[in-house]
Design brief:
Blueprint (H helix, E strand, L loop, with lengths): L1 E4 L8 H5 L7 H15 L5 E4 L8 H9 L4 E5 L21 E3 L1 E6 L2 E6 L14 E4 L13 H4 L2 E3 L10 E2 H5 L8
Parallel strand pairs: 1-2, 2-3, 3-4, 6-7, 7-8
Antiparallel strand pairs: 1-9, 5-6
Length: 179
């Protein structure tokens, strides 16, 4: 199975208030996110993390990652400073790859993966889907034209019950879609 997730912000206490997350503490938030992930994603599944995993150190990021199932692919977000910090190179194998942007093809369908929502993307006129995060539980800061609104999905935890979403859910239009 293939899953997507964004904006976990592991260990980030301020995100609870910023996004009105229903947690009393950062420890509670982290445990719910970890439990939801491990209940959803199995060890052989693939999971694409679309940024803002944690603001903590490379060592802390590694500790979270070792508790999480799946083969992990990473799209950089604006808060992923741990990737640039001293010591991260020893944890590079936590990910299959790390990129800024990816065009993923699955069964002939194109998925454009980017941390940020964008107005247009490769092959949108042919039905490719844009998966993103960044905006948490807020609307995108621009109006998506109606002809492409149905092709963009927010895979962030704040709009998806704090859990990863499957490719099946996305193809059925069950998650993170704009009205």
């Amino acid at each position: 199975m293939i899953f997507f997730i964004s904006d976990t912000h592991f260990g980030h206490a301020n995100i609870i208030k910023h996004c009105n997350r229903p947690f009393a503490s950062v420890d509670e938030m982290d445990e719910v996110l970890i439990n939801n992930w491990t209940d959803t994603v199995k060890s052989k599944d693939e999971i694409y993390i679309l940024g803002d995993f944690t603001l903590r150190s490379a060592n802390d990021a590694h500790k979270y990652l070792t508790r999480l199932n799946g083969r992990k692919y990473f799209i950089m977000g604006n808060h992923d400073r741990f990737l640039r910090k001293k010591g991260f190179d020893s944890y590079i194998n936590d990910f299959e790859w790390i990129k800024d942007y990816e065009m993923l093809y699955i069964d002939g369908k194109c998925f454009v993966l980017f941390h940020y929502p964008i107005l247009e993307w490769a092959n949108y006129h042919r039905g490719s889907l844009h998966l993103h995060g960044h905006v948490h539980n807020r609307p995108v800061p621009f109006e998506l034209p109606n002809n492409i609104k149905r092709l963009a999905y927010n895979v962030g935890v704040d709009v998806n019950n704090f859990r990863p979403v499957s490719i099946t859910e996305i193809l059925k239009g069950e998650v993170g879609r704009y009205a």
